[in-house]
Amino acid sequence: MLLCAGFASFALFSIALTRDSHSVAALWLANGLMTAGFVLLPLARAIAVGVACAALSLTINILTGAPLDAAPIFTSLNIFEAVLAALLIRRFIGVRPRINGLPALLRIAFCAIAPATGLAAILAGASLGYLGRPFDEITFNWFTAHALGMLITLPAVLLIIDRRGRREFVRSRWEEALLYGAVAALSLIAYAPSTFPTPILLTPVMVIAAFRLGPRGAALSAVMMAVISTLVVTLGPPQGISSLWTQTQRIHNLQFVIAAAFFTSLSVALILAEQGRVRRLLAMRTRAARRAQARAQAAGAAKGEFLATMSHEIRTPMNSILGFTQTLRRRQDLPEEARRQLELIHRAGGSLLAVVNDILDYSRLETGEVELALAPGTARAVAQDTLEIISPSAEAQGLELILEEVGPTDLSVMVDDLRVRQILLNLLSNAVKFTAAGQVRLKITARDQGPDVLLRFEVQDTGVGIPRELMHRLFRRFSQADSSVGRAFGGSGLGLAICKGLVEAMGGLIGVRSQPGSGSVFWFEIIVEHAAAPPVTAEPDHSDALGQIRVLLVDDHAMNRDLGATVLDLLGCEVSLACDGAEALEAARGGGFDVILMDIHMPVMDGVEATRMIRALGGAEGQVPIIAMSADVMPEMMERCRRAGMSDTLGKPIQIEALHAALARWTKAPAAEGATPTLPAVA
Q1: DSSP-derived 3-state class of residue 474
Q2: 366 band by pLDDT with thresholds 50, 70 and 90
Q3: What are the CA-CA distances from residue 343 to residues 314, 456, 510, 680 (Å)?
Q4: Residue 542, SS3 per DSSP
Q5: Per residue in 547-600, pLDDT tens?
Q6: For position 446, what pLDDT does the model report?
Q7: Which DSSP category does 481 fall into?
């Protein structure tokens, strides 16, 4: 009903103001409303609107005195024009078109309005030409009047019904009234008697209205300006400059002014609306990003807590398994079969510990918690140490280990030898694992580049090789070249991902070359700086025991206390035991200890609090070295231990040689290089 009433009102307005001798209106606004109805309404209602508008158009044309031969033609062409424009909009813009930017307005103008009104104008010129009317004049006047009218009313309707994005342009009623009043007043006086071309002032006023009221306000201002200006030009006498023009020239000038003001103001409004939409979207995404960051931080904290808990819960029993296994392996009275089974237990425990270590290392790499400890060292020393560790495994498989050096590999450089050794151990362990026969070669290339040194390590084997299509999976987490259920080699699939993360943390590169059946070459390169001083190498000391040092062992697990007492007894120590931090504090207050081995997680009083209390004792009792000995090896816990005043940390499972070295370091006793049997390396 509203569309039909609006169509009738606009049709009456345009026909009443027609001053064209061929009955073509100066501005035809009605078809824009009819097109909007065809676009927005369901098919049945759209047909009803079309029928009603056709009846109204024919009736109004006849009642207002339009020629009887032209009235049916005008009605038919109006319906055709609106239907074609609606079909083009649905085809090229969408079923529910939105004017949310200047491109959308231009698509509606050039893909729908211009073709529809242009074709209708040609048909009008041809149809009325048979009745003796001039084709060129009718075609041009029809196109300008109908295209401009539809270009004003159709976007206005689409913008009025679109409620999105209005909040930024909500103004007080007084401001809206002032702006619309200014547009109306200037539209009335634009063509008043004056030598100054007043109509050009309509554009800046319309732009101001667009700035304050947005696209909807710009569209309504355009409709208001078009209606009022058309009234003045068609009904009023020629004034000022316009008195020199014919009626047709004045109408064309009016159409040009309306089009310029409309396009300029609506373009500005649409640009402002788009900027507002972008600002809202940015603010929304910023809030979403902050929420995601908070969730990620919470998830990271939960993951760290989970890893710390699981690491502690796994390492605690592993400490007993590996510790007692190491102790039993030192015995000489075991049967050969029992020794073989014990070795299997030890290897299985080492494999489980390796998986736990891999998970923790990868977690640290993901969160950027790996810190490099650079110290003077040489590539040759790191390589030789690594080969000594891996040699028992290679010899057990009958493989030949070869070290090849190119360049000054004995240069003293700043390097994290622990991390480089970890990478080499992983690559060499893989090479030994996947090589049934032949050799494994470690090649080191050192190139002095002046201020720094390029180190390249290559691990070459004669193993099974890797197909090219599977090589891209090697450095991914939890991925292996052979991921089938029946694969021949196990593993967590984290080793190479950890190697890649460590190499990249050093600013280096890592890669692989391989041919199936011809072996593989894994390589990595790092750039290191020259060391100011050569690496310090301690002279070996072959003493077998630490001497009668007095050790206080604090642990809440009876099995761990039993194991610790056994190992310390083997190292020649005098051991006292405490089952929690409170007992440790009382024992330490009595003095007489050379070192305290302190567990962290304990009931009554934990190790961190006990350390703080012991340090607060003062005197010799408060200065005794305290070594943390815990299954919680997360960096946060190590830092807490350091801040509490602990002297050193040892992660569980404890290896005898590591415990021996720590005790020797803090009791001034020499660390015996050959004091304990060398254990198989755990990567």
Answers
A1: coil
A2: low
A3: 20, 36, 34, 10
A4: coil
A5: 688 999 999 888 888 888 888 888 888 899 999 999 999 999 888 899 999 988
A6: 92
A7: S
CB of 330 closer than 8 Å to CB of 339: no
Q: In angstroms, rounded to a whole number, what is the distance separating the alpha carbons of residues 48 and 68? A: 25
User: In angstroms, rounded to a whole number, what is the distance separating the alpha carbons of residues 242 and 191?
Assistant: 8
Element (H, E) at 278: helix 247-329
Q: What DSSP string runs through 103-157?
A: HHHHHHIIIIIHHHHHHHHHHHHHHHHTTT--HHHHHHHHHHHHHHHHHHHHHHH
How many Cβ atoms sit within 10 Å of the Cβ of residue 349? 21
The answer to whether 559 touches 599, Cβ cutoff 8 Å, is no
High-pLDDT (> 90) share of the chain, %: 14
**Which is more confidently placed, 83 or 634?**
83
**Tens digits of per-residue pLDDT, 483-504?**
433 344 444 457 788 888 888 8
Closest by CA to 392, choosing from 626, 682, 10, is 682
Name the residue with tokens 């009887």.
68
Count other C-beta atoms under 10 Å from residue 173's C-beta: 7
**φ, ψ (nearest 5 deg) of residue 520:** -135, 155
Token duo for residue 217? 């306000």
Beta-bridge partner residues of 414: 376, 529
Q: How many helices (H) and strands (E) does the chain have?
A: 20, 12
d(CA 442, CA 396): 18
Closest CA to 669 of 587, 549, 588, 524: 549
